[in-house]
Design goal:
By secondary structure, this protein is an alpha/beta fold. It contains 19 helices and 8 strands.
Length: about 425
């Protein structure tokens, strides 16, 4: 980090000793996992810098925004409309956490046999480990699973919360309920920020977020070239940073990276040989700094060329339509776009299975890894339907269920290597 941010962290009320231990762990792991990669695109330098300043410069920016009268809103899910937060003059930051560092703090208020993502996030708040939590004026949760629904009750004792009721079907009644929830978060943001969201402001916010989605979609298309011009691990990092970096700056930097990748594709430059088996990873979210499966895959002789995940295609696929000039018409468009996201919480959820098959074929993938976090019931149950559909489509599948710990990394590596050999034999 460029400067000593300890006074800022103390002012936020962080547990300085444990927070510094967390940063030490991350800063020790990151160079080993990322900087050791060969032939990385030069454009990844910006994203390396963002990680190095994740708890420093970016938090400083959030504090400056708050000092100027703006609000910061923390979220956990791609169903929370970032456009509405931006239109109210707020900044939206992702709070999901991908490390088991805070498990002990979480288990003081939550059962141990719970999804690692939920425990990690709640533990960050309870243990005063995350400056994004402490910078947030409001946290917005959503009812995507039973674990989250009950965890938000606990989290609400520690921080101001707003919970969006997400329907689990896509019937007309469900669409009506979701529309109501979108209008309700708009009203909550207006109350929080002390402003009235205008048509011009909402239209600008929609265009801004659509621009970010377009940049990520462009990156996704380019990484499908053969040879892959960027590692799956680097692409995942970019997708993770999308949840908390400044929208305009992030979009510009992703497009700069894509310009470089386009030239690589023209020149036939790849980070792996052309014959490297190509895999798509589908399933549970992979929140920062959860890089385990990608790292294991790409040090086992394969390359990840796509993520069918909330931290992946579900986040950037499909733009909000920009109809009319009224706030109501734009909120309707936002409501329709977000309900098209195919989370495993929906039943039935055949569209998600179709998207997995389509992504695998478009990316020229030899197979799919279905990744589920331990105790993530929606994705572990749905994996059976994914297995049957991919079998019919003649797409090889490897199912992995794991947590954030590294204790099973060697076992996963053995399974991935065997899967790679199976693909080679085909």
């Amino acid at each position: 980090m460029a400067e000593d941010y300890t006074p800022m962290w103390k002012g936020l009320g962080l547990n300085i000793e444990n927070h510094c231990k967390l940063l030490d762990v991350l800063m020790e792991a990151y160079p080993k996992l990322y900087m050791s990669q060969q032939n990385r695109p030069a454009g990844m330098g910006y994203f390396d810098f963002v990680v190095s300043e994740a708890h420093g410069l970016r938090i400083k920016e959030l504090q400056a925004h708050k000092a100027a009268g703006g609000k910061v809103v923390g979220t956990f899910c791609v169903y929370v409309p970032e456009e509405i937060i931006l239109a109210a003059g707020g900044i939206c930051v992702g709070l999901c956490a991908g490390t088991d560092f805070s498990a002990k703090e979480a288990e003081a208020v939550l059962p141990p046999n719970l999804c690692p993502l939920i425990k990690s996030a709640v533990g960050f708040k309870v243990g005063k480990l995350c400056p994004y939590f402490e910078s947030s004026d409001l946290i917005v949760g959503e009812t995507t699973c039973d674990g989250k629904k009950k965890a938000w009750e606990v989290l609400g004792k520690y921080h101001p919360m707003h919970v969006m009721e997400l329907p689990h079907t896509k019937s007309e009644a469900a669409r009506s309920l979701w529309r109501t929830e979108v209008f309700r978060i708009k009203e909550r943001m207006e109350h929080l920020a002390g402003v009235k969201i205008t048509a011009d402001g909402l239209k600008a916010a929609i265009a801004l977020v659509n621009g970010k989605r377009a940049a990520l979609a462009r990156l996704n298309r380019l990484r499908q070239a053969n040879p892959a011009p960027i590692s799956g691990k680097d692409a995942l990092l970019v997708e993770q940073i999308a949840f908390y970096d400044d929208v305009r700056r992030f979009t510009a930097k992703v497009n700069e990276l894509c310009d470089e990748l386009e030239q690589r594709v023209k020149d036939g430059v790849g980070v792996f040989p052309k014959e490297t088996p190509r895999l798509v990873i589908s399933g549970s979210p992979m929140a920062l700094p959860n890089w385990k499966v990608h790292h294991v895959v790409e040090t086992s002789g394969a390359v990840v060329v796509g993520e069918e995940s909330c931290v992946g295609s579900r986040y950037f696929t499909d733009a909000v339509a920009e109809p009319g000039d009224s706030v109501e018409s734009m909120l309707d468009a936002i409501s329709r776009r977000y309900l098209r996201v195919n989370c495993a919480c929906f039943t039935p959820n055949t569209d998600r299975i179709g998207q997995i098959i389509e992504m695998a074929r478009n990316a020229g993938a030899a197979g799919v890894i279905h990744y589920a976090l331990t105790f993530c019931t929606p994705y572990t149950v749905e994996s059976m339907g994914v297995r049957d559909a991919l079998d019919k489509a003649r797409i090889p599948l490897l199912m992995i269920e794991t947590d954030y710990g590294m204790g099973d990394a060697a076992q996963i590596k053995t399974r991935v290597e065997a899967f790679r050999e199976q693909l080679a034999a085909r």
